[in-house]
Amino acid sequence: MDLCHVPATREKGWYLALMAPNVKGPNYAWLDPSRLYCHPQGLQDCVADLLQPFQGDAIDMVAGIDAMGFILGAAAAAALRKGFLAIRKAGHLCVQTVAQPYSDYSGRQKVMEVRTDAISPGLRILLVDQWVETGGTMRAAIELVERLGGVVAGVAAICMENSEGGKWIQERYKCSHCVPPRLQPRFD
């Protein structure tokens, strides 16, 4: 798809067609949204769709999850005129951190961490990641925010799969994603 082309009519999720399918095998995600980020209108519309359900909500900061959540999170923070917090994989921050172990979508055990001085009690944080598959990574981020006294104002991702973990998150937090209901079965 032409990275400059903008369709005459743009319904929610039109930019999902910009994502490229996996050609490298089962150790990689099945779709790659990075091409969507190269498309100026696609990225703008994606961020607008992610933020639409939170219009009027109190959000103090946006946190993006390592690594691709940094792109959407920073774009959302800029659109909201809020600060951005990076929630990192362990070992990348040279400041005081709090850590949370988790299992990622592939079942590998990992550790997520966040700096301790960025979240004060009651701070309302919108968590953003590229994709919620099993929910393990997002749950670790939620744990970190709440352990430091922050409030999860919402969870946003391009896609939230209807996995057990994805459903757990959607039942407990206000969520936003870009996949129209008619396409959701193709993404699960």
Q: What would CATH call the architecture of the domain at 57-186?
A: 3-Layer(aba) Sandwich
Number of strand elements:
9
- The proportion of residues in beta strands is 25-35%
Q: Share of helix among residues?
A: 25-40%
N- and C-termini, Cα separation: 23 Å
Largest pleated sheet: 7 strands, mixed
Output the structural class.
alpha/beta
Spell the H/E element sequence: EEHHEHEEEEHEHEH
- For the residues shown, what is the average pLDDT? 92
**CATH topology annotation of the domain at 57-186:** Rossmann fold
Strand order of the largest sheet: 5-6-4-3-7-8-9
- Counting DSSP H or I runs of 4 or more residues, the number of helices is 6
Tell me, what is the CATH class of the domain at 57-186?
Answer: Alpha Beta
Radius of gyration: 16 Å
In short:
This protein has 188 residues and is α/β, with parallel strands linked by helices. It has 6 helices and 9 strands.
Describe the structure.
- The protein has 6 helices and 9 strands.
- The strands form 2 sheets. It has a 7-stranded mixed beta sheet with strand order 5-6-4-3-7-8-9, sandwiched between helices.
- Helix 3 (69-80) links the parallel strand 3 (61-65) and strand 4 (83-89).
- It has a domain at 57-186: 3-Layer(aba) Sandwich (Rossmann fold), CATH 3.40.50.
- It is 29% helix and 28% strand.
- The protein has helices at residues 34-38, 40-51, 69-80, 136-147, 164-172, 184-187; strands spanning 20-21, 31-32, 61-65, 83-89, 97-103, 109-115, 124-132, 151-160, 175-177.
- By secondary structure, the protein is of the alpha/beta class.
- Its main location: cytoplasm.
